[in-house]
Amino acid sequence: MGSSGYTCIRRTFCCLNVLVMLCGGIFLGMGLWLHLSYQGYATLYPSHLGLSADSLFILIGGLSIVISFFGCCGSFFESRCCLIIYFSLIIVLFLSEFIVGALVFVFRSGIARAVTMDIKDGIVKHYNATDRGGMFSPSVSSIWDRMQMELQCCGVNSYEDWYHIEHWEREKWVPKSCCRTRHTLSPELFEGSGYDVDDDCRKKQRPELWWSQGCSKAIQMLLIQKLHVVGIVAIVIAFFQLFGLIISMLLFCTIKHKRKSDTYKSYSPTIDSSGLRQSYLDD
After folding, report:
1. For residue range 69-107, what is the model confidence (pLDDT) as tens digits?
2. How many Å apart are CA 175 and CA 172, to the nearest integer?
3. What angle do CA 41, 64, 91 make, to 5 degrees?
4. How far apart are CA 61 and CA 64, in angstroms?
5. Helix H or strand E segment including 275
6. Is 271 helix (H, G, I), strand (E, B) or coil?
7. pLDDT in tens, 50-78
8. At 278, is the secondary structure helix, strand, or coil?
9. Burial of 139 (0-12, 13-18, 19+ CB in 10 A)
10. Stretch (H or E) spanning 244
């Protein structure tokens, strides 16, 4: 590899890792802020707070910072040790993604049933129509209301999932977000929403006024429609991981060869006649 090509690849790799580290820092900061200020919010899975938005942000941010740190140090300081750690972390991350994906695919039916039951339990115990959360940390109630209005669905499997929840015990009611639109020209007006409506459809026990489709089926249909987006995201992530593996090994081998060959002698730190220390960064 020529001197200019080696320097370009090393510096580009270093800059990309610095960018990833900065993005990881933003995710980590947002996760810590959500965790300290709005703990337990922004999740449809209240019984497992590890899957809440704050925990996911902290996990993504922490992994990004650690991995990119070793990649940046390895390329900037020409450290073979940091590069091999970076390479190993990417391999572990890739294998973890593959194993988790394979397990989810094999046990998808059982996992779907378990998740559905836990989400139903979250509705029963944690839905509170008066608790809306915040803009960046919506509550369970806010998430469900927004999802049901946008996807035009009600409950996990059906509107019956809302019967007898703790917020309205011994009542067969549903949230207002389950009500079908009253006026086709004004989608924001819902039956029972309070806009020139005397009746409250959520308390009428009239299923014909509610969305009949469950949200689990609506989400499945949405994912199928957006499958190309999921595919693009997966390809982009795989590309960056593969890019990191190739470049880290390329730099590792080049540094090893450089230290044993006169070809890269000019890139080793030297002392000029004036006594000033020069480095490959001076190129």
Report:
1. 999 998 888 888 999 999 999 999 989 888 988 888 888
2. 11
3. 120
4. 5
5. none
6. strand
7. 566 677 888 889 999 999 999 999 888 88
8. strand
9. buried
10. helix 227-258
Is this structure's pTM higher than 0.85? no
For residue 210, what are the β-bridge partners? 179
> What does the buried/exposed string (b/e) look like for 219-257 if buried means 16 or more CB atoms within 10 Å of the residue's CB?
eeeeeeeeeeeeeeeeeeeeeebeebeebbebbbebbee
The two counts, helices (H) then strands (E), for the chain are 7, 4
pLDDT tens digits along 163-206: 878 888 878 888 888 888 764 444 454 444 433 444 567 777 78
Note whether 242 and 94 are within 8 A (CB): no
Amino acid identity of residue 199, one-letter, is: D
Which amino acid makes up residue 198? D
C-alpha–C-alpha distance, residues 186 and 13, integer Å: 53
Residue 63: left if φ>0, alpha if ψ -120 to 50, beta else—which one?
alpha
Rounded to the nearest 10 degrees, how much is the dihedral formed by the CA atoms of 153, 159, 162, 164?
170
Place of tokens 């940091």: 82
pLDDT over 70 (residue 230): yes
